[in-house]
Amino acid sequence: MLVYLRLLKESFGFAINALTNNKLRTLLSLLGVTIGILSIIAVLAAVDSLDRKITKDLSSLDKNTIYLMRFSFGPSEIPQWKREQFPNVKFDEYTYLKGSLTNTDQVAYQLFVKRESIKYESKLVSDVNVVPVSSEFIDIQGLEFEQGRFYNESESNSGTAVIVLGYEIAEGLFGSTNALGKNIRLYGQRFTVIGVLKKQGAGVFGDSNDTSVFLPVNFLRRLYGDNNDTMTPVILLKPNKGVDMDAYKAEVTYKLRSIRGVKAGEIDNFFINVLSGFTDLIDGIIGQMNVVGWIISGFSLLVGGFGIANIMFVSVKERTNLIGIQKSLGAKNRFILFQFLFEAVILSVIGGIIGLVLVWIISIILTQALDFEFVLSMGNVFLGTGLAALIGLISGILPAITASKLDPVEAIRTGM
Fold it and tell me: What are the ABC3 transporter permease C-terminal domain coordinates in residue numbering (predicted)?
């Protein structure tokens, strides 16, 4: 055991010597490993960070939550021309489903509308994501509040001019002052602020609650009616926990077909989009990103492997005389083999560590610049180090075998 520890120490010394005596050559050879580890770990860290963000953003939502609407979240076998003829879901259908569906926790009605500007006195905030929705939305999405509250069922049904602001919207309009009770203008109307949400951070899917405002859906229905082409309605359904989703979707389908008068044999003129299906689609995309990252980075690692092999062959040639002397003094083949293998692994790991340090620096910069938590996990650090060691092992095996099989007499004569 002590022999191998001494061997490892000597190999480390030779590796450091190679780095210091042949700086440019070693740097260029290690560049491939550094870039390869940088590429792979950067991609994996980015995907992990994205996955964590998606999980965090969707953590408040039940994966069985259904978005009932005329559009599909994913690809559909129904031709586009036919889908374009599907009618929007209606408020009457929302009230019908709310009163007739079994095994249902909450039913909400929401409108997707274009972005607007909000004004308070002389201050104006533009590009605001407006979310007109019924009061049940808070029980489906689980919003958290910095100040105030969400509007209740009475305010929602009557379309009271109240509004809940996202964190950044409230900060842009009111700064550090209390926003509750203040009157802001939206759609040319005056709204009273009754709540401010907690800071969420950047949203993965574009919009964040920080840049959104929530108001009773019936206020907008009363203002613009139900046949406005700029608004797309959706019914949100949250089933009870443990419900059989196939049976639940069948019940939703039956009831909506009945109220719409869809005849037997005709296709459904609506889509039941389950959130879990959307998350599965996202997981598939993330998996594909990982594969592409590995393929692209693999080429860099291949180049890096050739670079390490080149260093080791040069090292064998430069130390041929030393190898001959070691063998003549009784050093066994495996001792020489392990000496060069350890050296190759150490050189490769050094290149990998440089790559990991670069990823760490990049993650800090991106986190600060993008308001997005870019995480370099310990799992990825160990993976990067392990990959670098593996590349060194594979790249160094042939030079190490070559060195271990040198004839001691010929080696000493060649080195003279």
Answer: 294-408
